[in-house]
Write a structure and sequence with these properties.
alpha+beta, four-stranded antiparallel beta sheet, two-stranded antiparallel ribbon, 3 helices, 28% helix
Length: 110
């Protein structure tokens, strides 16, 4: 799942937003609460891959990232699945509404 988190960082960057900064500014975190992955072929050490993330806003407090991991040279599908994240207030770890700055990023990449 580290590939998915790296793709999430890059997705934010592609819109001109640094993910960690927007989370700090809004005093929220996004823990992973549900994950699923189906591995279709091995990812070899040193192999170049592409991760395609498709975010879907699921209500006021959660986002689902559907993902595909592809071999960069062949385009072969190596894995797919999803990750559900929930917005929580970092002070009390209670769920809270997704900040507008994060929603803006999700809308730009959809």
């Amino acid at each position: 799942f580290r590939f998915i988190e790296q793709a999430e960082e890059e997705m934010f960057r592609s819109t001109g937003v640094e993910r960690h900064k927007v989370l700090q500014q809004n005093q929220v975190w996004f823990p992973r609460v549900e994950t699923f992955a189906k591995y279709l072929a091995p990812i070899r050490v040193g192999e170049a891959i592409r991760v395609q993330l498709t975010p879907t806003i699921k209500g006021a407090r959660s986002i689902r990232y559907d993902f595909e991991i592809l071999g960069d040279l062949t385009g072969a599908k190596l894995a797919n699945g999803y990750v559900v994240i929930v917005c929580v207030d970092h002070a009390n770890f209670k769920s809270t509404a997704i900040p507008d700055a994060v929603l803006d990023v999700m809308r730009k990449v959809q």
